[in-house]
Amino acid sequence: MLRVENVVKSFDDFTAVNGAQLTVADGALVAVIGPNGAGKTTLFNLIIGLFKPDRGKITFDDKDITGLPPYEICRRGIARAFQIANIFPRLSVFENVQVAVFAQQRQSRNFLQPAHTLARAETNAILESAGLQHKARHIASALSHGDQRILEIAIALGSQPRLLILDEPTAGMSPEETATTMSLVKQLAQTRGITILFCEHDMDIVFSVAQSIMVMRHGQTIIQGTPEQVRQNRQVQEAYLGGADA
Amino acid sequence: MVKALVEPRWLVATGVILIGLLLIPFGAPLFYIYILSVIFVTALLAMSLNLVLGYGGIYQFHHAVFYGVGAYTVALILTRTSLPWWVALLAGPFVAAATGLIIGWFCVRLTKLYFGMLQISLGSLVWIIVYRWYDVTGGDNGIHDIPMPEWLTTFQGAYYFILAVVAVCVGLMFLLIKSPFGATLQAIRDNPQRCEAIGINVRHHKLIAIVIAAFFGGVAGVLFATLERSVFPGLLFWVLSLEILVMCLLGGWFTFAGPLLGAAIVVALRTVASRYTDYWTMVLGIILILLIFFLPEGVMGFIQERAAAKRTAPHPQRVEERSGS
Amino acid sequence: MDPSAVISLLLVGLARAMILFIVSAGLTFVLGVLRVPNVAHGSLYMIGAFVAFTIATAFGQSSAGFWFALILAPLVVAAVALIIERGLLSHLYQREHLMLILFTFGLMLILNDLVKLIWGAEYRSVTPPEILDGAVTLFGFNIPRYSLFLLFVGPLVAVGLWFLSNKTRLGKIARAASVDREMVGVLGINVSWVFAAAFVIGCALAGLGGALVAPTTSISLGMDLTIIIESFLIVIIGGLGNTWGALIGSILFGVSQSLGLLFFPQFAIAFPYAVVVIVLLLRPRGLLRSAW
After folding, report:
1. What rounded mean pLDDT belongs to chain B?
2. Is-contact B163 B42, C-beta < 8 A?
3. Are there at least 3 beta-carbon pairs closer than 8 Å between A and C?
4. pTM of the full predicted structure?
5. C280/B118 CB distance under 8 A
6. Do B132 and C267 touch (CB under 8 A)?
7. What is the CB neighbour count within 10 angstroms for residue C182?
8. Structure confidence by residue, pLDDT tens digits, C99-131
9. Which of A97, B281, B284, B285 is the most buried (most CB within 10 A)?
């Protein structure tokens, strides 16, 4: 479904990504791991169009999406939840998701109808699957940190993505919140058939959830394979020097 | 659908106010009718700015350009051509919107302070053309004695016409804010990066908002020309643009009615203060600074905060109100 | 078109650019260190001009009077700036940009009317000192002595500012504070006074600009409005907080206006604005690096 080939990206003198490769199959749960500074977030930013790669190619469904603007990439079916909760603080939880649904339905430029009558069913469905329906009327900035991260994902779902990219979805979460979030992620993959690509520092999660793992170091791909293959790989072991947790 | 769109008590309040406004010319002195007309026009101008400023988070530092362009369009058409008055009045907002499109197209590539400064430069270019093109625009003197139909030249006639147009425009702006377009605009204000990530072409959206704001600003300009029957370059000067910003701030720019209130207060104060002092500008400056120190959410914002504080635990419906206006 | 007349015109434009530079340098200095876009900067320039007038008149508009005015006017403006900073501005540094801009706008309104209150609405003038009066012929070009003077003072100020920023302790602290205020505070330095000093210096430059411009033009109430827009645009195209950027921007501004006078006198003042538009379209962040 998604293929990243030999992608390179530099900022001034610093090469963040230096020949990364990634393959994400339809319906899979893929994780990207690597030490801090390996280039994982930059890679994700390249995929969703925040930056243009200096070299290399990114294709989605066999169509070249390299260098397209973020809104165009979203319209093709790729959505992203950010590492730091990137929500709309002054809007309610309901409105946060609704805006994404509007965008997906190409209703953003509709100025003839009142917003609160439209897209209710879709928005409520997403809020329910994320477990946020009871907080629909709350102002987003008033939510707890964990709830905001879930809202993050809910907003991304509003775009009806086929590929969902999660940047460290459980960073800074308590064990309960982590469990809730990961069960939500698994449920999305299984019941909704959404392909998931995520990066994480928590190795327990990665190895228990991911079907395919890509390991990065110094901006390059060391290996991509099943959890077993990755565990056995010598280079990976060296890269982590025995310590895997962030 | 209007029932669910606006709370019943607001609807009633608006109705009462409108009826009151309709009745005023039947007893009030002509001067008050004139001042109210000025307030309506200024309120429309301030609210048109707030469409992009408060709801879009766009640093529209030179909104007065669209106001002036609307006014000058009417003036030029009615004094230079023999086109009928209603053509002039209709043309004004569209020329203003076109100006908004051109200026906006250049400016949306930038954000925040840079957007504001580029807009000021482009707007100042327009001002210079109006100011210096003596032969066409009358330069520093402006254009006076713009011919208007008989019924529009009386205080009452102008009053009702302006009230009607402003009421319609305000209604339209309200519907706009409550629509998906408005919701998306506010989302762009709060987090443009996230909007891009959910598939919104932020630049496009902002540009459309700017054009709409310019349109309504142009309507205000047209109404000004109708009321005063003269135009002058000061209508396009950047100081006026900042004054409108102040009105939005004073009233409360995260609210819908805030700019209206701000405009009313500023016009009223200016009228009163000008009788007692030559230094209204200083008074305005002092008010502005006091505002920034003590009332940054503006008058409306302050009222809303007080009202919200009076309630106890967050009730779902009330929380929705706060986010809704 | 007489080439020597053109050169003279350009030199005069360049001289005018020096005043623009001095004023813009002050604005960009404040912007770079405090991150405050000071809309009242033009008012301080105007106050500098009016104060220069008062001092010069007190000395009977003599040559000595001019020199006294040149030294004292910026000091007066500096005092005013100190009062403003300590009394009001320093309480607002945490607020968002737009609030600071509007605050300084309010300040501009107040100062504008204060000038009207104190000096009235008539036009004033200052006579230049004898040695700077009249014109001189250099290499066949006719150039006013005062313009030469300005062409000398401008670079002097530039060098002085560079020295202040890079070689003095205050300058280094100021530059560090603009990037990371908290860190500098942690190091035990009273950041608050650094900011005050920076603001005062920036405003003093505006006052100096006003005193310098006084003999060349009529001193009037609208001075602040034109200069502030011009300075802001220069600062934007030069790069926020960048003194050399302000120099380049001012030269572009002054020279393009002179060229405008040559080719299209009626719309000469549009030329600099057009240049600004072009620069902003090609390099929206300014020609040189911004401080932040």
Report:
1. 87
2. no
3. no
4. 0.87
5. yes
6. yes
7. 9
8. 888 899 999 999 999 999 999 888 888 888 888
9. A97
